[in-house]
Amino acid sequence: MTTVVYRADSGYTPPRGTTIADVLTHEIEELGNTGIVVNQAVLDQLARCPASACLWVSPTYAYARQFGAQVDRLELTHLVVIATDPYGGMLIWLGLNKALFARG
Asked: How many Å apart are CA 34 and CA 13, to the nearest integer?
């Protein structure tokens, strides 16, 4: 099954060594996105996973457009959602879809 999502490049690249837990902590504590709820045990596990293994995406073009001028339509065959925000944004694990993205 293919899932269509949208991605706008916000221009932010996490520093080398950043984990998925760091990404979520940044969203909650630095950006004030308190609608993201993550179980502490899960967050502890995500502290072992590099941020390069995840990506924020949106279910709609309009929502993604808020984060950047260029919005890409992505067709993902394996969608694993790590966390969601109250607006429908999804932090996904790239996994088998990673080949679709050129990430530094």
From this structure: 21
